[in-house]
Amino acid sequence: GGITGGGDWGGVTSDPSESFLHKSSVFKCKKRRLLNCRKLCFRGALFDDNGSIPDPNRLVAEALKSALEPHSDNESENLKVMLNLTSELKRCNILRLSETEKLTFFLNLYHLMILHAYLVLGPPTSTFKWISYFNMISYQINDDIFSLTELEHCIIRAGMNFPAQFLSKYVLPTSRYSFAMSISDPRVNFALNCGSLSNPPSVPIYHVDRLEEQLNLASVYYLQESVSVAAKGKGVVVTLPHICQWYANDFGRGRPIDVAKYCVGFLTGDKQKLLTLALEGENIRSKFGEGGVAVKFQGYDFKCRTP
Hints:
By secondary structure, the chain is mainly alpha-helical. The chain is about 40% helix and about 10% strand. The protein has helices at about 15-20, 55-70, 75-90, 100-120, 130-135, 150-155, 170, 190, 210-225, 240-245, 255-265, 270-280; strands spanning about 35, 135-140, 145, 230, 235-240, 295.
């Protein structure tokens, strides 16, 4: 399904901020709005309605599927199903999950929160509203609360690098979570999809037993569509997506050529052949640098796909 889901839920409520968002009186979450609040969940109550401990990855996959496929005869009822599933996520115990299980859970949760917010509020309407929007949209999980920004940078990317922009160290939160990821995997950069036009139009539902394969496929999907490789003189000019410049330090030593060397493994066809030959060409260094390759980066389009 597409990152923007489908269907028309605009008529469900006249004021989404009243029906689907909540100011917590239990946690300190100034300027945040909890989306997964349709059903009450007492703190520490980890059992579902059937008396079982819910499987976090099964539950988040079901919730994401309902958000990606909102078509039904009664879309209001279908929305309630999604909201109920997201509320059940509050009961999940993610502290006991392995790193692979956590990464699977958090990738699906990230896309669920994006879709949830876009469906009930619409996407941010301008580049300048991105920061406040992603800092506002929040979920309660495992007796804790975090925003979309915290999920991305303080949990999923906790073991990775901050964006290269100078202002990022002053703008991004530095919250710490006991269940934060410790691994560093550059493919995460291509798996996270915030719904902007610079990202692919669809996302998969990740599964623990297929995560390695799915991360590779997500990287191929992202890079094959966004990377351009063109011969120029005795060398090659490769243009990479802007996210590769933001998070260059995730790729080896962080030099543009290091990023190109990492990305070539996820290209296919003529793009991969041309870039591979250029990177291996020891006799054509000239003005193109190592291997005769000049690396450029695209701009980033913050405009979002609309539900």
